[in-house]
Amino acid sequence: MSDWIAIGALAAVGLLIPIGMMTVSALLRPSVPETGKSTTYESGETPTGGTRIRFNIQYYMVALLFVVFDIETVLLFPWAVIYRPAIEAGVPMTDLLWPMLTFVGILAIGLGWAWRTGAVEWARSSRAASRKTERDINT
Amino acid sequence: MVPPEWYLLLASGVFCIGLFGILTRSDALYFLMSVELMMNAANVNFVAFSLYYGDLTGQVFALFVIALAAAEVAIGIGIILVLYRNFGDIDVTVPTEMRW
Amino acid sequence: MSSVAPAWSALSPALLLGLTGLALLLVDTIRPNERSNTSMAVVSALGALASLSVTVWFVIAGTGHADTGGAITLLEGAVKVDTMSLFFTAIFASVTALVVVAAHDYFHDHQRPAAFYSLTLFAATGMALLAVANSLAIVFVALEMVSLPSYALVAFLKKNRGSVEAGLKYFLIGALSSAVFLFGISLVYAATGSLIFGEVAGQIESLDTLSGVAGIGIVMIVGGVAFKTASVPFHFWAPEAYEGAPAPVSAFLSSASKAAGFVVAFRVFTEAFPLGASLAADINWVLAFGVLAAVTMTLGNFAAAVQEEVKRMLAYSSIGHAGYALIGLAALSAGSAGNEAVMGAAMAHLLVYGFMNTGAFLFVAMAERWGIGRTFEDYAGLARRAPVACTAMAVFMFSLAGLPPFAGFFSKYFLFMGAIENGFLWLAGLGAVNSVVSLYYYSRVVRAMFLDDPATPSALDAIDVRPTALYAAVVFAAVATVLLLPGFGPVIEAAEAAAAALF
Q1: What are the transmembrane regions (chain B) (predicted)?
Q2: For the whole prediction, is pTM greater than 0.90?
C-alpha cells in the first residue's frame, strides 16, 4: 500500500507546484492588457487565415511511410531481444540473421515500389500551382 | 500485484468505450480511433495475462497487434481519402449510391 | 516424401503465392512506366497455377496425411499442414488463377494494373496461411493479411463512387469485426493461457469460474468468422461490397475469401474448442451456428429473390451459400460418427462453389466489359450474341441452384444427407426449401438470356469486343463445374479424409 501513497504524493506535488506558481505570478504581476498579447502565437509571424486549412496530400504520404516503418521496428524488437542470448547459446549467426533480413528485404521491396511509383516525390497540389501563377501575374 | 480480474474489467471498459464510439459517431476518423481503442483493449488483456501466466506469447502477440492496427489505419485513411475526393465529406452515412 | 524434403517445403504453396506477389512488385519497380498488363497477368496466373499444382501434387503424394506420418507442424506448432489445409489451398489457388486471368481484360484500360495483381496475390497468400494456421495468433495475422488487401481491392477504382463506397463499407465492418475477433482471442487467452489450438483445447474442459470469459470470447470469435464468411450478423457488407467492387474482385471475395473464413471456422471449432469439451464447459457453439446457418440461408435466399440487379442477386445468393456451408459446423454432435461426413460435404461444397460462383461473377465482369446494363432486363436476349458465355452462365446458375445433373447438386445432397444422418432434419429441410427459392431467381437469369427479347434491337450492339482472357476464364470455370460431376467421388473422399483428421 505504501507504493500507492508515494504515487499519490507525487501526483499531489505535481499538481501543487504549477498551480502555486501560476497563483503567485497572478498575484504579483502588473496587469497591462495589449492586443499583441492576446493574438494567436505563430512563431512570431502575424497569423493569417483560419486554422482549418487543408494540408497538402504529400504530408499524408510521408506520414504513411513513417507509420509503416516506425511500427515495423516493433516487429524487430523481439528479434533484437533474443539476439544476444541466442549468440551466447551458440546459435549460428546465419540462422539468426536470415529472418530479420527477409523481413527487411520485403519492406525494402515495398519501399522501392512506392518510391518508383511516385509516392515519395513531392507532388504539386493544383491549389499551390494556381497561387503561384496568380503571384506571377501580379509581378 | 493487481488481481487479473481488474485487468479484465479495464479491458472490457476500454472495449465498450470503443464500441460506443463506433455506434454513435458517423465521422470516419472517430471510427478509426474507436477501432484502435478496441484493439488496444485486447492488448491490455494480452499483456496482463501474459504476465499472469508467465508466458511471453501474449506480449509478443500484442506487438503484432500494434503493427497490424497501424497497417489497418493506413489502409483506412487511404479509403477515407478517396471517400473525401468522391463525396466531399468524411461522414460515413453520406455515401448511399447503392440501395441498402 | 516428407522424409526427403525439408519440413518447411510443406508451406511452398503459400510461399509461391507470396513470392509471386513480391516478384510483381519488383518488376513494376524496375520498369514503372510500362503498363505491361499482359505480362503481369501472365506472371500472376503462372504463380497461382504453380501453387495449385504443388498443392495437388501434395494431396496426391499424401503430404500431411495420416498414412504418411500425419500432419506436419512447423514453428513450434503454430503452423500445421494437413489434408484440409491443402484442400482449401487448392480452392484459393484456382480461384486466384481464374480471377487474375479475367482481370487482364477487365483492367485493360486501367492506369496501373500492377497493384491489382500483387494485392490479389498477397491476399491469396494470407488465405493459404489461414489454411495452415494452428494458433490463434497466426489466425489473426493471416486474417488481416487477407482483409487489408481486400479493402484496397474493393476500392480499387478510385474514381468510381460505387467502388469507393463499397470499399468504405467493407472497411468499416471489417475493422469492427476484426477488433471484436481480436478481443475474443484475448479473452480465450485470458481463460486458457495459450494461443495454440491443441493447448487451448486441453484447458477448455477444466475451466470452472473462467468458462464465462471463454464463452464470451468464443462468441466474439464466431462474430469474426461470420464477417469473413459473410454470414449473419456481419453480412451487411457483402451486398454493398460485391456490387460496388470491380467484378473480378467480387468473384475473388465471394469465393476465395469466404472459403478462407470457413477453413478457419472448421479448424478453430474442431481443434481449439472441441465439441465435447465445450459442452462440458457449458459453451454450446453448435446451437449458435445452427441459428446462424438457418438465419443466414433464409435471409440470403429470400433477399436474393427480390433483387433487380444480377450482381446484387449473386451477392445475396453468396450469403445464402454461406448459410449452407455453415451446416458443416451446425450439424455436428459430440462423438457422432457422421461428423466427418457432414463437414467433408461442406468442404466439397465450398470447392464446387469456388468454381461456379467465380464463374458467375466473371460473367458479370464480362457484361460490365461489354457495357450492357446490370439488371435482369439488360441481359435479355444475350444468348443470341454470345452463346458460349451464356451457356457457361446457365451451367453456373443451375449448378448454384443445385439442379441434379450438376456438381452443385451432389455437394448439396451430401451436405443435407449428412445433416439428416446426424439428426438435424430441420436444418436439411430448411436448406431444401431455400434451394427451391433459389431456383426461382437463378432461373430468371437464364430465362432473360435465352428466352426474352432485348428491350430495343440496338441494346446489344455494344457486344462487339471479344475479351479473350475473360472468355477463357469463364469457359474454364464452366468446364471445371461440369468436370466435377464425374470427379466428385475423389473430391468428396479427399474432403471427408480431411475432415476425419480433425475429429
Answers
A1: 6-23, 30-54, 60-84
A2: no
